[in-house]
Write a structure and sequence with these properties.
Length: 310
């Protein structure tokens, strides 16, 4: 039957006070609007499909010089690995006895039904942040990318063999002007899966709140901060959007994103959290409220993401 909220009060705890109606106010820090931060970090998409499969493909290779009379080579695109996104199911509920609803002097049913929407939204936010809080792990439920590596790796492989198409998107350095310069160079010299230049402009600097003042000083100073010099600080010219993310758990973590059409860290939602209230399927007259949602998250190609430090 599961957990049921009843009037069987534990008189050895403050729980019994709910029965007597002598409480002036119920102070509950969890009674708030849902806090959601993931949408800035991902491509937030909807779907009607139970699963989605992406295919990595490289277009035609570089043209070559021909000798007189030589046949023009005929190229074809290269097809490679796939990435599957399978919907995952998340739910929660609350059940209260008829007696509890009838004799309790506080509208706890309404409070806890409303709470279902909040815990669903925040459960999604926490789960999506697992991608960013464990970026060097290949053991996530979300799986790995096209190259079977973690989202942040020093050994990402492109589709064509060689070195020109491989890339490292993990710096492992504290947030500083020099580290941001390294990140800019990474994006400015990016190659595609054929080893050809594509480049990108970083758009977001994301960090744990512990790094907020460091981030503000780096992007807001006329001169390079934290050193005694007259060196001009060029970072402000990057026009980065600062994003302080309290769900980033490591106090030293920061990363940069290039949110463009090649950005490939995704959330696919098949169903937003719903709410269904019903009578219990028995003769108790209990009430049950349930909420259900479907979503999945992951990445295929992570080159538009650059991890500074975990």
């Amino acid at each position: 039957m599961g957990t049921v909220i009843t009037t069987r009060w534990d008189t050895n705890s403050p729980q019994y006070l709910l029965k007597d109606g002598i409480i002036r106010n119920i102070f509950d820090t969890t009674a708030r609007e849902a806090k959601v931060f993931y949408k800035t970090l991902v491509n937030d998409k909807t779907t009607k499909d139970e699963w989605i499969k992406d295919l990595r493909m490289a277009g035609l290779e570089e043209a070559s010089e021909l000798a007189e009379g030589e046949n023009i080579p005929i190229f074809k695109p290269t097809l490679d690995t796939t990435k599957t996104y399978t919907q995952r199911q998340w739910g929660g509920g609350v059940r209260m006895t008829h007696r509890m609803q009838k004799f309790n002097k506080y509208d706890l049913w309404k409070r806890w039904v409303k709470d279902l929407a909040k815990i669903q939204k925040e459960a999604k936010d926490v789960e999506v942040h697992v991608l960013f809080n464990s970026p060097t792990s290949t053991a996530l439920t979300a799986g790995t990318g096209f190259d079977a590596l973690a989202m942040a790796s020093t050994a990402h492989t492109g589709l064509v063999s060689g070195t020109g198409d491989n890339y490292s998107n993990y710096l492992n350095a504290a947030l500083s002007v020099a580290a941001v310069e390294d990140a800019r160079y990474y994006f400015a010299t990016l190659l595609d899966d054929n080893g050809m230049y594509i480049g990108a402009n970083a758009t977001h600097l994301v960090y744990n709140p512990n790094l907020h003042f460091t981030a503000k000083q780096i992007v807001g100073s006329d001169y390079v901060p934290f050193e005694e010099s007259n060196t001009i600080n060029i970072v402000p010219e990057m026009k980065l959007t600062l994003y302080e993310d309290p769900r980033v758990t490591s106090t030293t973590m920061w990363f940069m994103l290039a949110k463009n059409d090649k950005y490939d860290i995704n959330v696919f939602t098949a169903q937003e959290p719903d709410l269904e209230i019903m009578d219990a399927p028995d003769t108790t007259r209990d009430r049950i409220a349930t909420s259900l949602q479907y979503f999945t998250c992951g990445w295929g190609d992570a080159r538009m993401y650059y991890l500074g430090r975990t």
